[in-house]
Amino acid sequence: MPDYAHPDVLVSTDWVLENLNNPKVKFVEIDVDTKQYDVGHVPGAIGFNWQTQLQDQVSRDIISRGDFEKLMGGAGITPQHTVVVYGDNNNWFAAYGFWLMKYYGHADVRMMNGGRSKWLNEANKPLSPDKPAVTAATYAVGQVHPELRARVPEVLEVATGKTKNLVDVRSPDEFTGKVIAPPGMSETAQRAGHVPGAKSIPWSKTVNQDGTFKTADELHKLYFVEAGLSEAKPTICYCRIGERSSHSWFVLKYLLGQKDCKNYDGSWTEYGNLVGVPIEKNV
Predict the structure, then answer these.
(1) What is the set of domains in the chain, with CATH numbers?
(2) Residue 220: pLDDT above 60?
(3) pLDDT at residue 184 in the model
(4) How many Cα atoms within 13 Å fall on the side-chain side of residue 65?
(5) Least packed by Cβ within 10 Å: which of 6, 19, 138, 266?
(6) What pLDDT sits at residue 2?
(7) Angle at the Cα of 130 (from 128 to 136), degrees rounded to 5?
(8) Taking residues 19-30, what's their average pLDDT?
(9) Residues linked to residue 194 through DSSP beta bridges, in sequence order
(10) CA distances from 176 to 162, 179, 277 (A)
(11) Which residues pair with 262 in a beta bridge?
C-alpha cells in the first residue's frame, strides 16, 4: 500500500521548526487545559482552549459560524493562512480543532505529527512562554461542510441495522460497559455500553509510542483486516466527548482516504443519556 492518502495534512516537528518565521503559517496549540500552553509552547503559537473556545458553553454544541469567524480573525488568522494544529493528549483536541476548521471550510489545515509531547521530548525544539502579538484579521467562512458531522438520527440508523461502519474509539472497558468514563475523568452519561453495530477500535492503536501515527499499511490492517470494516461503506466515529473520535476520523479520512467519513461529536455523552435508544453491554 502506498503512503497516506493525503500526506500533506501531516507535518513533522522539524518542518515546524523550519517554518517558525513563515508569515504564511499560523501555529495553534489546542489543549483541554491551557496551563501547559502558558508554561511554554511552540514559539509564536496561538493557544485555543478546547472547552471554552471551540464549544458553545450553553448548548454543548460546536461554536457558531459567527463565533468561529471571531475566534479565527481574533487570532490573526485569515482563510489564506496555512494553519498547523497540535496539542496535548496525543493531539486529541488538536484533531477536534482540525475537524472544526474543516467543517467551517478552512482550506489548508495540517497537524504536527506527535503533538506537544513530541516537541517537548526533542532537545533542539525551543519553547516560549510568551503569547504572540496578534493583529486581528477579517475571517469570513465560505462553504460549511455539514457532511463531516454525524448526528443522532444517522447513528440510530446504524444501531437499527443500516449498512454503515460505526467505530467506537474508546477503551475496551468503555466499550463493554465496565466503565462510563476513563479513569480520573468524570462520568458524563447515565448508562454504559456501546451503540449496537459498533466496532471497537481504540484510538490508541493508531499511534506509536512517541504519539506519531503508524504507517498506512499498519493503519489499513488495523481497520480493514483485523476489525473488518468495509472500505466501501460510509464511516462514523464516536467516543465520549468527541475529541478521540476526531483523532480516529482524521486517520480514516485523511490518512486512509475514506471519502465518506463523519465525526459524531455528540458521542457517548449524548447517546448514553438519551431515553429509549438501543445500547449493548458486554459485562
Answers:
(1) 7-145 (3.40.250.10), 149-271 (3.40.250.10)
(2) yes
(3) 87
(4) 9
(5) 138
(6) 56
(7) 125
(8) 98
(9) 280
(10) 22, 8, 17
(11) 236
List all residues 6 or more positions away from 59 whose beta carbon is below 8 Å from its beta carbon: none
Q: How confident is the model at residue 1 (pLDDT cuts 50, 70, 90)?
A: very low
Q: Give 141's contacts (C-beta < 8 A, 6+ positions apart).
A: 65, 68, 69, 104, 105
Bridge partners (DSSP) of residue 23 are none
Query: Catalytic residue positions?
Result: 239
Q: Tell me, what's the pLDDT at 161?
A: 85
How far is the C-alpha of 212 from the C-alpha of 118, rounded, in Å?
8
- Kind of pairing, strands 10-11 and 25-31? unpaired
Q: Which three cell numbers stand for residue 13?
A: 516537528
Partnered with residue 236 across adjacent β-strands are 166, 262
Cell of 81: 493562512
Per-residue pLDDT band at 226 (split at 50, 70, 90): very high
Cell numbers at 10, concatenated: 501531516
pLDDT band at 194 (very low <50, low <70, confident <90, very high): very high
Reading the block at residue 105, the C-alpha cell is 471550510
Q: pTM of this prediction? A: 0.97
> What's CA 91's distance to the chain center, in Å?
7
More confident residue, 81 or 162: 81
Q: Are 126 and 43 in contact (CB under 8 A)?
A: yes
Please tell me which residue, 187 or 114, carries the higher pLDDT value: 114
| Residue located via cell numbers 447513528 | 155
**170: exposed, middle or buried (Cβ count in 10 Å: 0-12, 13-18, 19+):** buried
The secondary structure of residue 64, as a DSSP letter, is P
